[in-house]
Design a protein that fits this description.
Keywords: Hydrolase, Metal-binding. InterPro entries: Metal_Hydrolase, TatD-like, UCP005295. This is Hydrolase TatD. Belongs to the metallo-dependent hydrolases superfamily. Residues 266-285 are annotated as: Disordered. α8 links the parallel β7 (182-186) and β8. This protein has one domain (3-270): Alpha-Beta Barrel (TIM Barrel). The chain has 285 residues and is α/β, with parallel strands linked by helices. Strands 1-2-3-4-5-6-7-8 form an eight-stranded parallel β-sheet, sandwiched between helices. The protein contains ten helices and eight strands. The model has no long low-confidence stretch (mean pLDDT 94). Helices cover 40% and strands 14% of the residues. The relative contact order is 0.16. It binds zinc ion (ZN). Zinc ion binds next to loops. Zinc ion is lined by residues 7, 9, 32, 34, 105, 215.
């Protein structure tokens, strides 16, 4: 089983996770920029983080034979802090980088006017850079949040096939499917979606335009949830080709629209052992 996790925050994960993911079949992933839990107080703090998603983290992933790409944006939560909003002005110089395959995560957290502005501005940046957008849908008031998100996407210059609506569940999947956007599902250990519920959604709505991710981060989460979904699909009678479509070909098709996916140069043997002079070893050979 080959797996492409289209949404996972590896900065918050360990080398043990990389090793287990590789063993489970993960060969590629996309790391969206997001909120780090601790509020940031200046744009510069974002830029160091963006550089890390473009440099150090792909290097770390490559040590385990996993292709790493990222999505960059001002996240919805911090879009409400005027100390952070200047990030929007600097994003264009990051969106031209080779391994940036979408603008994201953008979307709504509390559905404030500041979030309205950041979402519309960043959908426009995606359109201008011919990049897809990864759009987070709110965890509270999900149905209303999704409807408002879809309205803003419709008003934007970005075609729906360039948009993934993420963190969907049974209450939002129908409206999301009708929008023409891609459908993202985050599989968590105890909240949101779990593998059996995900299988039921795939049975009801088919395997087209479906993206399954672990969204693993610094909170309670599990980077192997993608593999669990693949196993649950097979147990429920889906074919290996169905699993390959959902866990590999769909994310490749979605992020491939950026023209920047590079899935060939990740064999661990031919990646350098250091990044700017630093390795993942602790002084050992
Ligand atoms: Zn996320």
């Amino acid at each position: 089983m080959r797996i492409f996790d289209p949404h996972i925050h590896m900065t918050s994960r360990t080398t043990d996770d990389y090793e287990a993911m590789r063993a489970a079949g993960v060969r590629a992933l996309v790391e969206p920029s997001f909120w780090l839990g601790q509020p940031r107080t200046s744009p510069e703090s974002f830029f160091d983080y963006f550089d890390s998603l473009l440099g150090w983290e792909p290097f770390r992933a490559a040590q385990y034979g996993i292709a790493h790409h990222c999505t960059l944006a001002l996240n919805p939560k911090e879009a409400n802090d005027p100390r952070c909003t200047p990030v929007l002005d600097e994003l264009p110089r990051y969106l031209v980088k080779d391994s940036v395959v979408a603008v994201g995560e953008i979307g709504y957290d509390s559905m404030t006017p500041a979030e309205d502005h950041a979402l519309a501005a960043q959908l426009q940046l995606a359109a201008e850079h011919e990049l897809p957008a990864l759009v987070h849908t709110p965890h509270r008031d999900k149905a209303a949040g999704l409807k408002r998100t879809i309205d803003v996407v419709r008003e934007s210059n970005l075609p729906p096939e360039y948009v993934a609506l993420d963190h969907l569940n049974e209450t939002t999947v129908r409206d999301a499917a009708d929008s023409g956007c891609w459908l993202g599902f985050s599989i968590y250990p105890d909240t949101k979606m779990d593998p059996p519920r995900m299988v039921k959604i795939l049975q009801a709505h088919g395997t087209g335009r479906m993206l399954v991710n672990s969204a693993a981060d610094w909170g309670r989460s599990d980077p192997l949830k993608t593999r669990e979904v693949g196993d649950a699909m097979l147990a429920a009678g889906f074919t290996e080709d169905d699993v390959d479509q959902v866990l590999w070909r769909n994310p490749v098709a979605f992020y491939g629209q950026s023209g920047r996916l590079d899935l060939d140069s990740v064999a661990a043997e031919d990646t350098p052992a250091t990044h700017e002079g630093n390795s993942i070893l602790r002084g050992g050979e």
